[in-house]
Write a sequence for this structure.
């Protein structure tokens, strides 16, 4: 099973994205057709919608209904293992925030890292590997 972050889903979705081919390759080789092979959190889907509909980031952003349709497709796909935050995740999130002396710009990545780690995810597909390297708990699939 491989966890995915927002940057991976954006790279997979946007054909013009510099990492599109690499994201598609990981998806095709490690996720597609493999039940429960992709760990996905609701947080990633919310951030994906925020990013992919932003006209400041993309010349042709998705409309919100289209972005939500993609999110529903991924969330309900056989390949998706839904991971959610619980009390254990919150404790780990707070520990890492203190331990690594992180600020407000690291809140969401730290919460995602804690959510994935608590769910037993040890591999993470991302284009932003520096955001997750410090935790020392993931094998990073850098796309």
């Amino acid at each position: 099973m491989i966890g995915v972050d927002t940057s991976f889903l954006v790279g997979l979705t946007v054909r013009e994205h510099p990492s599109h081919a690499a994201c598609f390759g990981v998806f095709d080789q490690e996720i597609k057709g493999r039940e429960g092979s992709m760990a996905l959190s609701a947080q990633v889907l919310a951030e994906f919608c925020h990013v992919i509909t932003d006209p400041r980031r993309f010349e042709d952003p998705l409309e919100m209904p289209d972005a939500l349709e993609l999110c529903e497709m991924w969330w309900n796909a056989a390949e998706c293992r839904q991971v959610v935050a619980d009390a254990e995740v919150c404790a780990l999130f707070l520990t890492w925030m203190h331990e690594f002396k992180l600020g407000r710009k690291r809140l969401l990545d730290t919460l995602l890292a804690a959510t994935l780690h608590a769910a037993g995810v040890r591999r993470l597909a991302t284009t932003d590997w520096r955001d997750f390297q410090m935790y020392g708990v993931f094998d990073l699939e850098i796309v």
User: Anything to note?
Assistant: The chain has a mean pLDDT of 96. The radius of gyration is 15 Å.
